[in-house]
């Protein structure tokens, strides 16, 4: 779906999320949301915060799982995804802090494998993701599933692609300071979500959007695996869709 601009598109996405939360509330059920970081979802979070403040949208029944976190990364660092999520969403809504799950960039390397298995199990035990919000990196990554990621991959530690580090270098004052690794949900974790919405804005995403939507399905561009998910929508602005 192509929108005039990201502001209009983000309101539509926020409305879908709000509807889902409310319909789960009516059934007395939890709403399990998979959330993303990066610049793409910021306007969606702004709109959800507005709906909470002005329309009384409650997040009491919401359980969230974030896609990824740099590794290693202290939670309090303003470069952490932990910080980002609190800054843009969690500090402004009525979610129970116990219901917030973000991969922990401070876990010791010895405990990491078990930690990733537990993160995966926690999603399953919560009933699986009802909705997964995604951005896309210029390498075709979703979460931090870089080229080479297997369709069956689960939550794990990965090595960041050079292009991803270039794109993150602005946040870290130079590429040399960008962490080399990250913890990410896997491709299979994402594909098990009942509903997926991927958002992309701007001309610099146009090439990867074309290859993701019109190219062959391949682990060279992990986002192409979404072609085989039966309930995925790509939400684009005009520039991001300009090469389709
Ligand atoms: C990071 C995140 C991804 C995100 C991507 C795109 O790599 N791990 O989840 O989709 O950046 O970021 P942006 O939305 O800023 O273009």
TrEMBL record:
It comes from Flavobacterium gillisiae. Residues 8-233 form the Glucosamine/galactosamine-6-phosphate isomerase domain. This is Glucosamine-6-phosphate deaminase. The chain holds residues 30 to 273 of 645 of the full protein. It comes from the Bacteria.
